[in-house]
From TrEMBL:
This is tetrahydrofolate synthase. It comes from Butyricicoccus intestinisimiae. Residues 20-173 form the DHFR domain. Pfam families: DHFR_1, Mur_ligase_C, Mur_ligase_M. It catalyses: (6S)-5,6,7,8-tetrahydrofolyl-(gamma-L-Glu)(n) + L-glutamate + ATP = (6S)-5,6,7,8-tetrahydrofolyl-(gamma-L-Glu)(n+1) + ADP + phosphate + H(+). The keyword Metal-binding does not apply.
Length: 596
């Protein structure tokens, strides 16, 4: 077991409510009351409230606040944020930043008390504010930081009259509506697009206490087969009894399907709450002149934070694009790096040759950490072997996969010592993906699985939108083939099922793909083709795609929508194959359900 495989932060398992970050402050006339005013400690009820709230939890405080208290408080773990002085006492540690304090807290309840600087950093993250407003004029330490009162709702208010009148107020963060959070991400996608580099991720995750370091991660890169391999790995690990988080994109049928724990999608409430906090952090980063994350980076950070909050034993994470500079490659707790089929795609960002792309994908391989490569082109294998030698990482190349049976719902294959293994996915290529998953889980020394658990996991694997038959009359199969490598595999599977010229195709692609080569491989199989425009800023219009595909098929017609394409296609009374960008397949599924 290597150092990389065990460097994730151990954490205390929680039950009930998820961990929270709370801010505790007393102020008068918008001035913090503490070291100079000392008013909170003149109010017995304030001491009692502070004691009751923080007992058994973690307190994070600034240097001046800690020096005022004098000793670590009993029954609590104290973390002091100071860059100038180290405090060495029982149950007390000193760290240089709030982010480091949250990382040390590792998902436990954290209560913040300190001065304006610490409060300013904590406000974007605070779930609860416990405020004591003193209705008298006292000299305080400094200005209480400005905060958006609309972002919180009052859940408790208690007025106390006497020599020192004050009001206890408890405020809980109000999450933006889920739809508003989705609209924010959609706007950010249109605004920033794809930007390579990890600096924004580093800044944002540091503010959250680097939640991605709290569990080991199976990290996947590749051009095709990542999603299928990911779901096979996750299904096997679940069959072995582990709590498994997954993050894969893009979504096909439901936006929240990218984030799952044990197959349960993130709730709209959790998505909205996390996005609310992340947006607040990004606003603060923008004010400080720090680089602000893209939409994909924001949702990747959300994945890491939410899976940590959900106490996952292990996560399986798919690269969005590339590997070396992909947002997911911020992780340092890789348990195994998995590389699926690598082909020509995203050349604008990854390089013009297969060797360049392989090197970019291989950037996820970490030092002294196992790597698994699906057997493929010799030039790809050479590049990955070179990276593994440089990183001193053991490499398993998945070869010798033999398909023994295949039908519309499953594939049975032999791989190594495991014979007659069935995966509940359609398409012969899924045997290679399932074998890659087997090799990956067998590399996880700290997560043992038996052969029986492997078989059980693969039998319960499902991956929507990949060679999935969603209608019987006529037969309609949908697949996310959107680049030449995937199109080649889809062509082989289509010819295994149907005669050339005996099907109808519905196609929609993105403009940055090699759609001409996709057409050369797949358009000749069709008697008739309907093209659609995906609902994506990078979409190729149905008209332009039709013009391209007419090189390879005589009957190609643009459709106004996936629904119209399906309405026309089913009139041909032939099997229908719909493929291309995943971004429009949900529209097609909805149309099929409405028309049947």
């Amino acid at each position: 077991m290597t150092e990389n495989m065990v460097c994730y932060t151990s954490r205390k398992k929680r039950t009930g409510e998820n961990a929270m970050l709370a801010l505790i402050a007393a102020f008068a006339q918008n001035r913090i009351i503490g070291r100079d005013g000392r008013i909170p400690w003149d109010i017995p009820e304030e001491k009692h409230r502070f004691r009751d709230l923080t007992m058994g939890h973690v307190i994070v405080m600034g240097r001046r606040t800690y020096e005022e208290i004098g000793v670590p408080l009993p029954g609590r773990e104290t973390i002091v944020v100071s860059k100038t002085k180290n405090f060495d006492a029982p149950h007390c540690v000193t760290v240089p930043s709030l982010g480091a304090a949250l990382e040390h807290a590792a998902g436990r309840d954290v209560f913040i008390c300190g001065g304006a600087r610490l409060y300013q950093e904590a406000l974007p993250l605070a779930d609860v504010l416990y405020l004591t407003e003193i209705h008298s004029a006292y000299a305080g330490d400094t200005q209480f930081p400005q905060w958006d009162e609309k972002a919180y709702s009052c859940v408790e208010s208690q007025e106390v009259h006497g020599a020192i009148p004050y009001t206890f107020v408890t405020l809980r963060r109000r999450a933006m509506p889920y739809q508003q959070a989705r609209e924010y991400i959609a706007g950010l996608t249109a605004q920033k697009g794809i930007i390579l580099g990890l600096e924004p991720m580093k800044h944002l995750l540091a503010r959250l206490g680097n939640p991605q370091n709290r569990y080991p991660i199976v990290h996947l890169a590749g051009t095709n087969g990542k999603g299928s391999t990911l779901t096979c790995i996750a299904s096997i690990l679940r069959a072995a009894g582990y709590r498994v988080g997954t993050y894969a994109s893009p979504a096909v049928f439901e936006p929240r399907e990218c984030w799952r724990v044990n197959e349960t999608m993130i709730s709209e409430t959790d998505y909205a709450l996390w996005m609310t906090k992340l947006i607040a952090c990004c606003d603060d980063m923008r004010k400080n002149g720090e680089p602000v994350p893209t939409a994909f980076e924001m949702e990747t950070v959300l994945a890491f934070a939410w899976m940590a909050q959900q106490n996952c034993d292990i996560a399986v994470v798919e690269c969005g694009m590339g590997g070396r500079e992909d947002a997911t490659n911020i992780i340092s707790t890789t348990a195994v790096s998995v590389l699926t089929s690598i082909g020509m795609d995203h050349m604008k960002f990854l390089g013009d040759t297969i060797q360049d792309i392989a090197r970019a994908k291989g950037g996820i391989i970490k030092p002294q950490t196992p790597a698994v490569l699906q057997g493929q082109a010799p030039e790809v294998e050479r590049e990955i072997r070179t990276i593994c030698q440089q990183q001193n990482s053991p490499l398993t190349v998945v070869q010798g996969v033999s398909v023994t049976r295949a039908d519309e719902k499953s594939v049975t294959f032999d791989y190594g010592e495991m014979q007659d293994v069935t995966v509940r996915l359609s398409g012969a290529v899924q045997a290679k993906n399932a074998a890659t998953a087997i090799a990956a889980v067998q590399s996880l020394a700290q997560f043992p699985v038996t052969q029986q658990q492997i078989r059980e996991g693969l039998l319960h694997t499902s991956w929507k939108g990949r060679m999935e038959q969603i209608c019987d009359t006529p037969v309609l199969v949908i697949d996310g083939a959107h680049n030449p490598n995937a199109a080649k595999q889809l062509r082989e599977e289509a010819l295994r099922r149907w005669k050339a010229g005996g099907i109808v195709e519905i196609v929609g692609v993105l403009a940055d793909k090699d759609f001409t080569e996709v057409g050369r491989l797949l358009a000749p199989l069709a008697k008739k083709i309907f093209t659609v425009t995906p609902n994506n800023p990078r979409a190729l219009s149905a008209q332009d795609l039709a013009q391209c595909f007419r090189q390879f098929c005589d009957d190609v017609t643009p459709a106004d929508s996936p629904a119209q394409a399906w309405q026309r296609a089913k009139q041909e009374q032939l099997p229908v194959l719909a493929f291309g960008s995943l971004s429009w397949l949900r529209e097609l599924r909805d149309a099929v359900e409405e028309q049947t």
